[in-house]
Design brief:
The protein has 318 residues and is α/β, with parallel strands linked by helices. 30% of the residues lie in helices and 20% in strands.
Length: 318
């Protein structure tokens, strides 16, 4: 043996010839020669012969996981459209959504109020005086046209194509309950009178949850055999174990949680996106938050929430 390494070129070639049948690790076990030396000799031989990969010292690249692009979801809670109220807020909501161009728009239901079918007012009472089904329907159709006009205009202008999802609420369900209570109304009135589908909405039946980008949406979530609404965001996380968005209840409530794998859960309960006061509430309870939400960077149920009040929209679109 000779040379600085203690191995002559002849020795090296002899060990390298063994690579046809054994691995560098096996040569190390048999002859106590480092496997790294065998590989280096092989590279040197290939470099001399002009084949293989040249010996170039490089830094080991650092792996970076690709950044996943999240969705933007606009969520519009209960708008409670009915006759006799100022419907301009419907147009402002539509203009804001057209400006933001979310990937998905979720309408939480109770877009229609349907006071003519209320079961809380006795027939002939003052609360039912002058109430007409046709007036309810006309106000709903008018408000939907006002809200969707800027959205449709922006879709035509820019090619923006949001997914539109509407989860029916208990106020729209008044139509079904009226037919059930009075079968002769079957075929005379119906949910189709609202014209939701004509504007491109995917209409989800009342109390049927739908999961979108890892968030489950429903007009409200039930607890117990009697199906009572869950009334706090913290209880939503505790009982449903995933990110949730519920409507139905005035004001807003939010809670945060963590799954076993460390990923984020968020529950939001918001059920008021209208400007008028409700007759059945008082001076204190009518003073609740009203607005919509933009959920940014939605990935597998995690998101950054942005609350947008109707007061802000009135200032933005005077």
């Amino acid at each position: 043996m000779s040379g600085i390494s203690g191995y002559s070129q002849e020795d090296k070639d002899r060990y390298l010839a063994m690579l046809n049948t054994v691995t560098p690790e096996e040569i190390h076990v048999r002859y106590n020669i480092a496997a790294s030396s065998i590989r280096r000799w092989k590279r040197e031989k290939e470099a001399r012969a002009g084949v293989g990969t040249p010996i170039i010292k490089t830094e080991t690249p650092v792996y970076q996981s690709p950044i996943k692009q999240g969705k933007r979801i606009a969520v519009v809670p209960d708008m409670q459209i009915k006759p006799g109220i100022d419907l301009s807020y419907a147009e402002r909501i539509g203009r804001y959504l057209a400006d933001k161009k979310p990937d998905i728009i979720v309408n939480g239901g109770d877009f229609a109020d349907m006071p003519s079918l209320s079961a809380y007012e006795a027939p002939g009472s003052m609360g039912m005086e002058g109430q007409r089904y046709k007036d309810d329907i006309l106000s709903v159709q008018t408000a939907m046209r006002l809200m969707m006009a800027p959205i449709q205009a922006e879709m035509a202008r820019s090619g923006w194509k949001p997914r539109l999802v509407l989860t029916l609420g208990n106020h729209e369900d008044r139509i079904r309950r009226a037919i059930k209570a009075t079968p002769k109304l079957d075929g005379v009135i119906g949910l189709s009178d609202l014209h939701y589908e004509e504007y491109g909405w995917e209409v989800i039946p009342f109390l049927q949850p739908i999961v979108i980008e890892g968030i489950v949406f429903c007009h409200y979530f039930c607890s117990g055999i009697m199906g009572r609404p869950i009334t706090s965001a913290r209880a939503l996380l505790t009982k449903k174990h995933m990110s949730c968005f519920a409507f139905h209840q005035q004001g807003r409530d939010i809670a945060f949680g963590t799954k076993a794998d460390g990923s984020q859960m968020i529950a939001i309960l918001a059920g008021s996106c209208y400007e008028h006061d409700e007759d059945y509430l008082n001076h204190q309870t009518n003073n609740h938050w009203r607005g919509l939400y933009i959920l940014n960077d939605v990935i597998d149920g995690a998101f950054e929430e942005n609350a947008v009040s109707l007061h802000y929209l009135r200032r933005k679109y005077p």
